[in-house]
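Our example copied in:
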Amino acid sequence: MSAIDIPPPADDKPGHPAPASRRPVVLAAIAGFVLGACVLGLLWGLAGQRGGADEDAVAACESFYRAGRLPDTTGGYDPAQFTRLSDDTIHRVTAARELAKAAAAFNDSYQPLAQSLENVNRMVLSGRFDNPAAQHDVIRVQQLCARG
């Protein structure tokens, strides 16, 4: 058999165009998938941060309310008549402060809540309920939590 007798390959037959390369289609599909995953991840990450701050602020308010009524000895009450708060009340106020700080770390609009709860927590830990500024912060926390 000589080179003249060998039939041409099937791809080279007249009337049959060569198949197009799939490489551009595959590369475009991969690029689209990667770009879509990046956008979805970015949107998910941004939505989670704000949602987390909102949830922390709500949890801070709930913890503060669960602590119960804090005494106010600024109006002529004898501070010596008051002994001390229960441990669970102290822990709830401290938890409220920590949750508010976490919310403020992601969203600056919660900074007033975090600062007021910081002052209330100091008052609770010291056991001095005759501090007018700290008592004002108790009212401020109630107002901020009522707004939502």
The longest helix spans residues 23-66. Residues 53-71+83-148 form one domain. The helical segments are 23-66, 87-106, 111-126, 132-147.
